[in-house]
Structure formats: structure tokens, C-alpha cells
Amino acid sequence: MPHQLYIASGACSLGAHVVVRELGLPVQIVKVKTRVPESPIHAVNPLGRVPALRLDDGTVITENSAILPFLADLAPGTPLFAPAGSVERGLIQSWIGYFSAEVHAGGFRAVNRPERYSRDEAAFDGIRSQSRATLKQTVAHIDRHLAGQDWLVGGRFTIADAYLGVFVRWIARFGDAFSDLEALNGFRERYLARESVQAALAFEAQE
Ligand SMILES: N[C@@H](CCC(=O)N[C@@H](CS)C(=O)NCC(=O)O)C(=O)O
């Protein structure tokens, strides 16, 4: 059996999915549902989360921050990543860490899952609005970095950009509240124009 990447429609697994398509890797994309007990994801990742990468020997790698570099390393020398020990590799991994910890876990999760932060339902709206304000500050940092450049590191599309696309798409749901982040809005257009992204989104939209 080939390596299998477990993904879900609209989820943060889009970044890894895009990397598989950018690199033309021999990795089977397996679309699953999350948050339902009968989902096959539970047999792969005990946390029930995507992305999860099941290797051909049965080993399962979870976490975007591990899966994205692992996939890129399946194509040695790819411009989507950078050589071990290089400054660019450090910068790409720095952004991936920021997206995983600060933007996803620290930002979106509190906006989307206030029940994880309080048992008091009356507190949910307050958690959502404060978290949204915090998230805005977090993504404004990315917006400032992107001003005047197309991609995050080295003037080319990398695995960090593949991952950032997830959050830039999610931000669009906030409409006007985030529309002043011009560099990020430009990034979203460049991201959505990529063939790999369009193919990944079309696959995810299929029934
Ligand atoms: N830290 C993990 C987060 C993964 C994660 O939260 N995935 C979400 C989709 S964006 C999921 O599968 N949620 C289902 C659930 O929590 O039950 C990573 O970066 O890979």
C-alpha cells in the first residue's frame, strides 16, 4: 500500500494535501469526516484529527509541523523546502511553528471551540470576540511580513505558504473584519490561483 494522507474537507490538512499535489508525490489522498465516531480516522489517529500520514510500513505521523517537512523531504532538493542546516530551512520551520501554535491552536481554536475554554455557555460569546481580536493581532504579524513579497521565505512558494493558505482561507469567513490585511488578501489570490490548490479544493469538494 502507498503512503496515505488522511484529510478532511475545509480542514487544516489542506496544506499537506497541496504539498502532495505540488510535488506529484505517490501518496494516496484519503478523505474522511472528523468529529463523528464512525470515521475511519479514529483507527489511524487516536486523537481523531487530520492531517494524518500513514506510511507504507504502517507508521503514522501526525501534526502539520511534522508532516509538511516529511512530505517535502520525499522530494530531496525541492524548492518547496530548503537544505538541512540552512537559514531558509530554519525560517520555513519557524513560520510552520507559528501557524500551528499561535494561529491555529492559539487563535482559531478559541474562536471556533469556546467550549474548550469555559464550561459556562454564557461566556462563549465573550471568548469568541476576545479571541477574534487576539487572532487579528496574530495574523497582522504575518500581513506585515508579507508586505511587498509574494511568499513567506526566499521569494518562492514553500511548504510554509502551503500551510498559510489554510488560515488565509479561514480568515475570509470573517469578511470585513479582516479585509484591511492587504498583503494577506493578495496572498490568498496567488494561493487560490495555483493549480495544486485548485485541484486539492476540487477533490475536497467531491461527495
Ligand atoms: N495540531 C494539529 C491540529 C490538527 C487539528 O486540529 N485538525 C482538525 C481539523 S483542522 C481536526 O481534525 N479536528 C477534528 C477534531 O478535533 O475532532 C496539527 O497541526 O496537525
Automatic annotation (TrEMBL):
Residues 1-79 form the GST N-terminal domain. Residues 85-207 form the GST C-terminal domain. It comes from the Bacteria. CDD domains: GST_C_Beta, GST_N_Beta. This is Glutathione S-transferase N-terminal domain-containing protein. It comes from Chitiniphilus purpureus. The lineage of its organism: Bacteria, Pseudomonadati, Pseudomonadota, Betaproteobacteria, Neisseriales.
